[in-house]
Design brief:
binds adenosine monophosphate, binds manganese (II) ion
Length: 351
């Protein structure tokens, strides 16, 4: 039976620390008023979306649709395509390519984007919107919209999206829960990262109670890939280097072209590289289809890679962050090492 979230028992207790508790009530109220007064709501998430970005956006899209709103949802990639590993998410009929996104929407809601640059091609559409509600959990988010629903204490934007679902009077069904669960498991590394609080498990319990097939979701997200992935992974691992607590490698466009592998398939490589015992920081440089390096970084906690990546024009979290580099692979690493050294000096002073 689908639990009705209108029943208080199914909601997170207001008395207990509640996901999104850092967001003032007045902001939630304003969001509900803005949404209530708009017939068409345009949803946007960050470019090359992960499970948290796309899952949070589609979950809220379902509720808005059930309220009778017209909903368009998109992300601003030049080559617009849902990454293969997220194609199992329901609600993809809400998606439109960025060129079909309203040019000057009345109301935009953004998901999991820490700054307007992360909206890619949709950045200008958002800039022209009358109101922009920013739903996000990045500590680096300074609030680029007209209303911030930002709480950096939560593990995933999906936790804030769940709050929004409830506050809009929605109920969890299996489709919404699938989308939110994809966000929750992605951003907690399957409940392994330190962000995995009791509130995360409590939310997971609410979602699983709708009848989710969690094993199928896990398989879609992590346990399958085309054969070519293994070949590309092999090239990446052959080149991997360990230097002074830093483990890193790179994957080129040529590696991928040889196997016909899309860029989005590279997401899991960092999770293999970062397991290295001898390294506290892991980096994977991934060349995208335009010849830029998309840099994925991970820390085991001693170093704030979010600060390193912010200094290099990107952003993210303390232990997982990234940025885009337009210079050569060698120069990218030279600049990265320089910023890493500064961050290490800062963290040794802090101890
Ligand atoms: P990834 O390595 O792609 O899984 O990204 C890890 C985290 O870094 C993401 O959740 C984002 O918060 C952040 N991030 C990645 N790429 C960028 C970028 N180009 N600009 C800003 N933040 C980024
Ligand atoms: Mn994300
Ligand atoms: Mn996220």
């Amino acid at each position: 039976m689908t639990p009705n979230v209108r029943d208080r028992a199914d909601r997170p207790s207001r008395a207990a620390p509640c996901p999104g508790g850092a967001i003032p009530e007045i902001s939630w109220d304003r969001a509900l008023r803005l949404i209530g007064g708009t017939e068409e709501v345009a949803l946007a998430c960050h470019v090359t979306p992960d499970g948290d970005a796309l899952g949070s956006m589609l979950a809220v899209g379902f509720v808005l649709r059930s309220m009778g709103k017209r909903v368009v949802a998109s992300f601003g990639d030049r080559n617009f395509a849902v990454p293969r590993l997220l194609r199992f998410l329901p609600g993809q009929d809400m998606l439109v390519p960025p060129e079909d996104f309203p040019a000057a929407p009345e109301l935009v809601i953004t998901f999991d984007a820490s700054m307007s640059e992360r909206l890619g091609l949709l950045r200008d559409n958002a800039a022209r919107a009358r109101e922009v509600i920013v739903v996000d959990h990045h500590p680096s988010n300074r609030g680029f919209g007209t209303l911030s629903l930002v709480d950096s204490t939560v593990a995933a934007t999906a936790m804030l999206a769940e709050q929004l679902v409830y506050r809009l009077g929605g109920r969890l069904d299996r489709d919404i829960a699938t989308c939110l669960y994809a966000g929750l498991v992605t951003d907690t590394g399957s409940f392994r990262y330190p962000s995995t609080t009791p509130a995360v498990h409590q939310m997971a319990a609410r979602l699983v109670a709708t009848g989710l097939r969690t094993e199928e979701i896990a398989r879609e997200l992590w346990d399958r890939s085309p054969f070519g992935y293994l070949k590309v992974l092999a090239s990446a691992l052959e080149r991997v280097r360990l230097e002074d607590g830093l483990v890193w490698t790179h994957v080129t466009r040529v590696d991928r072209a040889a196997q016909g592998l899309p860029y989005a398939e590279l997401e899991g490589i960092i999770d293999i590289v970062r397991r290295t015992d001898e390294a506290e920081v892991a980096v994977v440089l991934k060349e995208d289809d335009h010849g830029d390096w998309q840099v994925s970084t991970r820390s085991k906690g001693a170093v704030d890679v979010g600060a390193v990546c912010s200094a290099l024009g990107g952003g993210g979290h303390h232990d997982a962050a990234g940025y885009t580099s337009h210079v050569s692979e060698a120069e990218t690493m030279t600049r990265f090492r320089r910023e890493l050294a500064k961050a290490r000096r800062r963290s040794s002073r802090a101890v």
